[in-house]
Amino acid sequence: MPASKTKLLLIALILCGCEKPKPKAAALEGQTPEIVLWSSSPVLDGNFDTSGETGETIVTASADGTVRRWNAKTGNLLGQSDKTLQHALFAEVNPRGQVVFISADDGIVQVWNSAGASQTKVISRGATAATFSPDSEWLLTGGEDGIVRVWDSVSGALVMELTGHENGVASIRSGSDRKRLVAGGDSSIGSIWDLSSKSRTALVGHTNHIMRVALSPDDSTALTVSWDRTAKLWDAQTGRLLVTLSGHHEYLWTGEFSPDGSKVITAGGDGTARIWSSDSGALLAIARGHDSTINHLAFGHDRKVFFTGSWDGTARMWDIDTGREIVKFSSHLDFLTSVAIGAGGAYLLTTSADRTAAIWRLRSF
Fold first, then answer.
1. If you ran DSSP here, which 8-state letter would residue 16 be given?
2. How far is CA 114 from CA 75, 168, 183, 200, in A?
């Protein structure tokens, strides 16, 4: 998943030693992980590396400043980056095996070739969000200055700067055709840029910070997810508001289009994930079961299920049509920092502030 400022807020809980949401001590029923990877510090993010032939390797980022590559079948350490960051956030991996990660302290963005040497390449500084374009040609970064910067992911050269966004950037997404880009952040107003002209359209309608943005698979519709407890769908070409998704009772932390674009899933502080029609905005189902905030979403490769990760320390798999809970994955002793699906849908990866990453084999349930 693209890096967003949501992760920075969660990591602030770890770094400051503040009271954090704790899973219930008895919540250890459910599936058992195939492999548990231990770290000397909280594991802040994880993802699957699909650059190899099998896609059975994972990448994790830890608070000790190191990004590591593991074999998902054996748990063996395959390599790691230089320990050049104070706290390494985010571990988005593109199909080339490039890993982007950010320092929580100063926003340094670095790219590491997970299959190559340990050295990393510094791309930018002062960033609060970063992601690759869908075709991996670009690396997108946004910072507290409100500027979105587009970089060549191979050379690290600056391609363009996009201005006009109000306040810091929390989340960025580009279209699959690289013709437009959407961003949101420390403001109730989002942004869509036409990249051919660099012209910006303001997305006006929210009343609190926008924590997540997304584009539909056909790039026609933009999604914004806000702390005002609503999500909104916008025409990605004109910026016209299409529909407001209302019903959550607490801050929203995350939201995504389903892989086929027919649905939108939103989740947040009320512990529910809500499934909406992306065409009409109608509420189709509510997934209930978590005891605390849901901060991460992932989709199964068969498009029939989705996964949630929560502050209650569990991940869960749900039927995407009915919202029925299919299985609970519970081994962590602190809140989850990421969930990811990989290896053709055969594995689930969860990472946690409890200093572990867990690899779960997904069987037929």
1. H
2. 16, 29, 28, 35
Read off the pTM.
Answer: 0.91
The verdict on residue 365 lying in a domain is no
Residue 275: name the closest of 322, 235, 210 by CA: 322
Give average pLDDT by consecutive 10-residue segment, the chain, 365 residues.
Answer: 53 52 45 90 90 76 86 90 68 83 80 68 85 94 94 93 93 94 95 96 97 96 98 97 98 97 97 98 98 96 93 97 96 94 88 96 76
Domain count, the chain: 1
Task: Provide the domain limits for residue 345.
Answer: 5-19+29-359
With a CB cutoff of 8 Å and minimum separation 6, the contacts of 154 are none
The answer to the question of residue 201 being in a domain is: yes
Distance CA 206, CA 228 (A): 7
CATH number of residue 252's parent domain? 2.130.10.10
Close Cβ partners of 25 (under 8 Å, ≥ 6 residues apart): none
